[in-house]
Amino acid sequence: MPYKRLDEKVDRLFSVPQWLKSIQDLLLNQGVQWPHAEQLLQGLVKKWYQSDERMSGDEAKQVLYDELLQRLNAEKIHTAHLNGKYMMLVGPTGVGKTTTLAKLASRAVLEEGKKVAFITADTYRIAAVDQLKMYADILEAPMETAYTEQDFNELLQRFSKYDHVFIDTAGRNFQNSGYIAELLQFLKAEQQINMYLVLAATAKFEDLNRVINQFESLHVSQLIVTKVDETATYGTLISILLQHPRLNIAYMTNGQEVPDDLQKAHVGNLINHLLGGSDGQ
């Protein structure tokens, strides 16, 4: 449990800085999980003692910024470039996989002049297939549905001459182990498929953590975070990255507009949002 006063955790002969409680409240209110917040706060107290107890609250925030910047290095949050031919989006229902796929494909076509194709393995939602078909028509790109593993492999071969092939998957209950098993079947293809796990910034830490653990067998290392514009708390994302060091955020989305609302991901901006500052440092 969070402590009310830091001197409940250290020798009572020592005092604690007055700003410590406000920073603790900031981290916890932003959704940083207590084990991570405690480590950060203990580091601040150590720095405070090293400064002969002269470090101010503003200086402490700068120290906290630098510490998070070091822990969440540039490889953790970066604007990715489309690498490889095949890009598959997976994740729970309702996180915006289809719209995000359309944004990525539109950027590739409109900004990079790439030739793209779509494959959907979402045979559960007619609306999602229709939505992707609409985007494909706008981009004048082919789109096909894979009903079976054989269909999927044949479509990979058919689209092998395209620069990028964007693969949509069904949004289903992530706690259903059968869903993961289906995705594993698709990954048996000979072609190298780059997989991205799509998560909503509005979700609770516990739910995000369960999703990540459920998808662990797929060896996903790249995240796409959606609905960034629908939250004012960013500590959950910070804690997820601290909890799962192997994960990187490749893209963030901040709205429904295609292709505009594909946000540049930058670690410094995320930390500034957490600490209540403006973008950049």
From TrEMBL:
GO terms for molecular function: GTP binding; GTPase activity; signal recognition particle binding. GO terms for biological process: bacterial-type flagellum organization; protein transport; SRP-dependent cotranslational protein targeting to membrane. It is found in: Cell membrane. InterPro entries: AAA+_ATPase, FlhF__GTPase_dom, P-loop_NTPase, SRP54_GTPase_dom. Residues 83-256 form the AAA+ ATPase domain. Its main location: membrane. The keyword Membrane applies. Keywords: Bacterial flagellum biogenesis, Bacterial flagellum protein export, Cell membrane, Cell projection, Cilium, Flagellum, GTP-binding, Membrane, Nucleotide-binding, Protein transport, Transport. Signal peptide: none annotated. Residues 84-276 form the SRP54-type proteins GTP-binding domain. Necessary for flagellar biosynthesis. May be involved in translocation of the flagellum. This is Flagellar biosynthesis protein FlhF. It comes from Sporolactobacillus inulinus.
